[in-house]
Amino acid sequence: MGLLLLGRARITAVDQEGRNFIANVGPGDLWYFPAGIPHSIQGLEHCEFLLVFDDGNFSEFSTLTISDWLAHTPKDVLSANFGVPENAFHSLPSEQVYIYQGNVPGSVASEDIQSPYGKVPLTFKYELLNQTPIQTPGGSVRIVDSSNFPISKNIAAALVQIEPGAMRELHWHPNSDEWQYYLTGQGRMTVFIGNGIARTFDYRAGDVGYVPSNAGHYIQNTGTETLWFLEMFKSDRYADVSLHQWMVLTLKN
């Protein structure tokens, strides 16, 4: 899953049925490409984005790329595969090109390619900031999972806003570990894993946090500006349990 932090970009993808997808993304937009789906991300201006994978052992630098693959394929094979002369491939890079300079593309309408198999049935893009947030006295939260972004079957997320002096209540997540990325501000989190074991951590923009599944925790805004952070889960659904709600709804006896 990707989250655009700054600027604008264009994303494209083609699924296993030959159906394609082309869209522009702006700040706060998410995209999700299922494993094995070929795709591209092109800047329309200076842009920065965060990529999150559902496998902690995966490296973005070990992914399959066109430049790397073609550089390690004989030119006579490329010629036979694409039906063009070998000299068409003489200017190919000799190794993987991870990020390279190209031309800024025109509008989607002017450059759209109509696949004979049509468009992908489920969009790969989700405009998170256009979602009406769940408002609380101390902040807000926007939640995205397969219930409102159907293609996202392996990752759920929440964009959390906490105002100065406020806190995300004591809670835990029953269905997945939690991975956090702090976008702005300063925060403090204590994680309790049972058996008398707890630890407190301080965070600021650019830091990463982690909470094991079913570990109780809270997040305080310890700074003077709004704290924004992203919660990510390896699950098709977002789920949390509130300590306050549990206690209120349990018999007093």
UniProtKB/TrEMBL annotation:
Cofactor details (free text): Binds 2 manganese ions per subunit.
TM annotation in the entry: none
Any one Gene Ontology molecular-function term assigned to this protein's record: metal ion binding
All residue ranges annotated as the Cupin type-1 domain in the record: 126-247
InterPro entries assigned to the protein according to its UniProt record, in alphabetical order: Bicupin_oxalate_deCO2ase/Oxase (IPR017774), Cupin_1 (IPR006045), GPI/OXD (IPR051610), RmlC-like_jellyroll (IPR014710), RmlC_Cupin_sf (IPR011051)
Binding site for Mn(2+) 1: H39
Active-site positions on this chain: E231
Entry binding sites for Mn(2+) 2: H171, H173, E178, H217
Superkingdom of the source species: Bacteria
Gene Ontology biological process: oxalate metabolic process
Keywords assigned: Capsid protein, Manganese, Metal-binding, Virion
CDD domains recorded: cupin_OxDC_C
Cofactors: Mn(2+)
Name listed for the protein in its UniProt record: Spore coat protein and oxalate decarboxylase OxdD
Taxon lineage: Bacteria, Bacillati, Bacillota, Bacilli, Bacillales
